[in-house]
Amino acid sequence: MDIDKQGIDDLNRLNYWRRYQSTLSFVLFMAVRKEFPKYRLRIEHSMSQGFYCYLDRPLKLKQVEKLKLRMRKIVWQNLPIRNFTIPVTQAVCLFKKQGSIDKIELLRDCPVKTLRVSKLAGLFDAFGMPPLDSTGKAMFFDIRLFSPGFVLLFPFWQDLNAMAPYIPQLKLARIFNEYGEWVNILGVADVADLNRAVEVSRGSEIIKVSEALHEKKIVYIADRITRGKRKIVLIAGPSSAGKTTFTKRLAIQLLVNELKPKIISVDDYFFPHCLTPRDEYGQLDFESIKAVDTALLNRHLEAVIQQHKVKMPRFNFIKGTRESGDTMFLPDNGVLLVEGIHCLNEELTYRIPKRVKFKIYISALTQLNIDDHNRISTTDTRTIRRLARDTHYRGYSAQRVLSHWGKVRRGEERNIYPFQEEADEMFNSALIYEPSVLKEFCVPILRQIGSHDPTYPEARRLLNYFSLFYHLPNRYVPSNSILREFIGGSSFVY
């Protein structure tokens, strides 16, 4: 069976952590109802090892502290949480009595017949992953003011007894705000809005506008690079962020600006497998920066920007060795685009002066919400992209993709996320419509996973996620879209 046992353990930890997050989200909802009964809580995107949240109006530090104390009290009371499944019609009645307008909007056009509902002290909610059975099982958390809202902080998924240090992510917040403006332009803030748009044949329009917003941002970044006369552009991001397509589209816009872009992949500078470091489980660790021959990379980068001809390497992943590649020469109006997961880390290009470098962070920073209290995880967006690509075009099983995801997450948390704020520019590769398109690629694959398979709970979780979306045909997706990197039919060669 194509299963990584350590990966299954990580998958189970991740899903327990998701339940922990649901528990604290429910506790927060109850605390808001107690302290600010007239306010509406909105749990938005991930930030600083937590969720960014806001109410109908900005909160002050004193109010946030008051909310935190109320949450502590609810957790210490160890109140029971009951999870049960009921018909959607019954759930609508419950939420109508409670005044949960967002839930009613979602369920009105939702194609599911039953819903798993959670109850805490007379309060009802529904989450993608059910909360734990009592509030006392989510002891570790924190809340920090991040005006106009606040951040609900969680412990590490690997160790629920250890809290991550709070580091405000100002640049990331600006990108989420920018995406929020895109949401307003599209008129799609929740899954219910997206489903209605698909239902009234606005799907093609949503795709066109989403793609145009991407292109506008890429043009803006290309203009910044051109004005700054940077010679090396370093592009980093987590798995399935769409780095390759973004790099190719950026290259086109630089050509429009009369520059001559040349693309280098850091992966071609991997050490041979015999020299690759191993992780704590004894497996080859390609996520580590020590897997890259940084000395050779820096020599080549220095030579290229000094306009010397350089014979570039090409890594053979089948043999696990480095081979001879093409000759690189950079003209006067040339610019190097370097793509790799470590590109924001100064250790990768330690010999290159900062004044000639421009760093870009790219990730699928989803802002579309399921409802007020359920966000669409950026991790889930990348998971289903990878699931579609790797099962259809790379010969992997769904089980292998799902069981490897924990290892991917570990590598990202060590090697990418700590350097996000080092970027000169950030690009959000998320497309608001993509779950509706990816549905046709992922659902049949996930349905093949049997109930005895260790990845079955994760498959069911993702199937429940897809059940909320109306299907949108992929024929509307343009050939240069970042999404084409994962569903095929791209006009770019990879």
Brief synopsis:
This protein is α/β, with parallel strands linked by helices. It has helices at 5-35, 61-76, 88-98, 101-108, 170-186, 191-199, 203-228, 243-256, 294-305, 378-393, 398-415, 434-447, 456-466, 484-487, and strands spanning 42-47, 50-54, 81-87, 114-120, 123-125, 142-146, 149-153, 232-236, 260-265, 310-316, 321-328, 334-339, 357-363, 369-371, 374-375, 425-428.
Describe this structure in words.
By secondary structure, this protein is an alpha/beta fold. It has a domain at 1-80 and 128-168: Threonyl-tRNA Synthetase, Chain A, domain 2 (2-Layer Sandwich), CATH 3.30.980. Helix content is 42%, strand content 17%. Strands 9-12-8-13-16 form a five-stranded parallel β-sheet. It has a four-stranded antiparallel β-sheet with strand order 1-2-7-6, with helices on both faces. A three-stranded antiparallel β-sheet has the order 3-4-5. A hairpin with a 2-residue loop joins strand 1 and strand 2 (50-54). Helix 1 packs across helix 11 (398-415), helix 3 (88-98) packs antiparallel against helix 4 (101-108) and helix 12 runs antiparallel to helix 13 (456-466). The longest helix has 31 residues, at 5-35. The chain is globular. The model has no long low-confidence stretch (mean pLDDT 92).
